[in-house]
Amino acid sequence: MVKEEPPSTSKDLQDLQRRVSLLIASVQSNSKVVAFMKSPVGQYLDRHPFLTLTLLVFAAVSAVPVGVFLLLVVLTSLAAFVGVILLEGLVIAVGGFSLLCVLCGLGFMSLIMSGTIIVSYMVVSSLVNYWISPRLWIQHNSNCDC
């Protein structure tokens, strides 16, 4: 009770084999591949097919972890960049608010100091005018008539 394969399956396999052969021939006739195969590394890999297959499998398998790592690096760099910008904005905002507070305090202190200086000037001026009044000068000048 063994079923025979239909003839179309063998034709499909022959067609697939022909296409793969054409693909291999086109790759082998590529000028870059020919130049690589003439190099010492290409000749060494041609003499050691197991090493070539191992390198090819390693490159294919390691592509995903390397890609994930590079994605992680890029995302971490972007996060750090955004974090630095946010942190810098926070520092500038806090610094600006602190500067505003200091300047307001200095303005208030300037008003107090100006008021104190003006009041002191008025008091000293009044005391000087009271102590050295013009009538004392007049009396002093009249006594000194020589």
From TrEMBL:
The entry's keywords: Endoplasmic reticulum, Lipid droplet, Membrane, Transmembrane, Transmembrane helix
Name its cellular compartments: Endoplasmic reticulum membrane; Lipid droplet
Where does this protein have coiled-coil stretches? none
The source's superkingdom equals Eukaryota
Regarding the membrane, this protein is recorded as: Multi-pass membrane protein
The residue ranges crossing the membrane are 49-72, 78-104, 111-132
Q: Name one GO cellular component term.
A: endoplasmic reticulum membrane
InterPro entries in the record: LDAF1
Q: Which family does it belong to?
A: Belongs to the LDAF1 family.
Know the name of this protein? Answer: Lipid droplet assembly factor 1
Its source organism is Balaenoptera musculus
What broad taxonomic lineage does this protein's source fall under?
Eukaryota, Metazoa, Chordata, Craniata, Vertebrata
Which gene is annotated as encoding this protein in its UniProt record? TMEM159
